[in-house]
């Protein structure tokens, strides 16, 4: 079972390197945002596989933390691309 | 511009409390396991940032009427007071006291005075982060 975890870890790290390529090369800004979000997901799976390999449950809170930060970052980038500003001031309507 | 982010606003009303509960869990778990006042404060600040993203500055400042500069001052006073209270008991600076109490719902619990110091760190981190974000985000 350990060899299965190691193989999946290697595959996920390779896909993460490809996401870094898309992050640098990406023709438009939405490509880069999606690559960053997917890198967050692969980082979460790397942490989960490491916690299986090491055999500890202390890493599980890091997974929740990374998921929250990745979600908020993606929402902020999307709002910036869509509306051009991060925070509304609230006096427009 | 007419705002049409119904999904984001509805999801934020639920997710805000989930993130805030996780921040409180991280804050209290910080004594024996990873976590503590710093990470809890950063998570609380990110929950408030999510509210700011979904709604606007005026709504959020009406819902959470905190002066974040005064919050930094209260946190620094709390941390400094907890650290220097040990001088009054004739023990070295920053020594913390702890004891075991029988609380009704939790059973036997160990209560530490280092938690008050951590609460000060929490307030300082929330205040400083929100000050930075509001200063950067609110000028045009």
TrEMBL record, chain A:
Residues in a coiled coil are none
Q: Which residues cross the membrane?
A: 6-24, 33-52, 58-77
User: GO molecular function terms here?
Assistant: sodium:proton antiporter activity
Q: What is its main location?
A: membrane
- Print the keywords alphabetically: Antiport, Cell membrane, Ion transport, Membrane, Transmembrane, Transmembrane helix, Transport
What's one Pfam family the UniProt record gives for this protein? MrpF_PhaF
InterPro entries linked to this entry = MrpF/PhaF-like
The subcellular location is:
Cell membrane
Q: Where is it found, in Gene Ontology cellular component terms?
A: plasma membrane
Tell me what topology the record assigns in the membrane: Multi-pass membrane protein
The family assignment reads:
Belongs to the CPA3 antiporters (TC 2.A.63) subunit F family.
The name this protein goes by in its record: Multisubunit sodium/proton antiporter, MrpF subunit (TC 2.A.63.1)
Where does this protein come from, organism-wise? Bhargavaea ginsengi
TrEMBL record, chain B:
Q: Would you indicate the residue range of the signal peptide?
A: none
Q: Which Pfam families match?
A: MnhB
Give residue ranges for domain Na+/H+ antiporter MnhB subunit-related protein. Answer: 7-130
Its membrane topology, per UniProt? Answer: Multi-pass membrane protein
Q: Which UniProt keywords apply?
A: Cell membrane, Membrane, Transmembrane, Transmembrane helix
List localization entries: Cell membrane
Decide whether keyword Membrane is in the record. yes
Membrane-crossing residue ranges in chain numbering? 12-32, 38-57, 69-94, 114-134
Q: Name one GO cellular component term.
A: plasma membrane
Can you tell which superkingdom this protein's organism belongs to? Bacteria
Keyword RNA-binding recorded: no
According to its UniProt record, where is this protein mainly located? membrane
* PANTHER family in the cross-refs: NA(+)/H(+) ANTIPORTER SUBUNIT B, NA(+)_H(+) ANTIPORTER SUBUNIT B
Q: State the similarity comment.
A: Belongs to the CPA3 antiporters (TC 2.A.63) subunit B family.
Question: In its UniProt entry, what is this protein called?
Answer: Multicomponent Na+:H+ antiporter subunit B
State the organism of origin.
Bhargavaea ginsengi
């Amino acid at each position: 079972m350990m060899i299965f975890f190691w193989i999946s870890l290697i595959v996920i790290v390779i896909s993460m390197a490809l996401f870094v390529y898309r992050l640098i090369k990406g023709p438009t800004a939405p490509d880069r945002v999606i690559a960053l979000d997917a890198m967050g997901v692969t980082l979460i799976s790397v942490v989960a596989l490491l916690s299986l390999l090491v055999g500890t449950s202390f890493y599980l809170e890091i997974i929740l933390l990374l998921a929250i930060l990745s979600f908020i970052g993606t929402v902020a980038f999307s709002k910036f691309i869509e509306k051009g500003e991060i925070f509304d001031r609230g006096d427009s309507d | 511009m007419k705002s049409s982010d119904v999904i984001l606003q509805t999801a934020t009303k639920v997710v805000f409390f989930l993130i805030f509960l996780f921040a409180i869990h991280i804050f209290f778990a910080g004594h024996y396991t990873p976590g503590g006042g710093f990470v809890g404060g950063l998570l609380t600040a990110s929950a408030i940032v999510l509210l700011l993203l979904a709604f606007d500055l005026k709504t959020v400042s009406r819902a959470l009427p905190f002066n974040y500069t005064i919050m930094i001052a209260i946190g620094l006073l709390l941390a400094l007071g907890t650290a220097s209270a040990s001088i009054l008991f004739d023990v070295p600076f920053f020594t913390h006291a702890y004891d075991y109490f029988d609380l009704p719902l939790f059973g036997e619990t160990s209560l530490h005075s280092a938690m008050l110091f951590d609460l000060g760190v929490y307030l300082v981190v929330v205040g400083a982060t929100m000050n930075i974000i509001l200063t950067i985000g609110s000028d045009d």
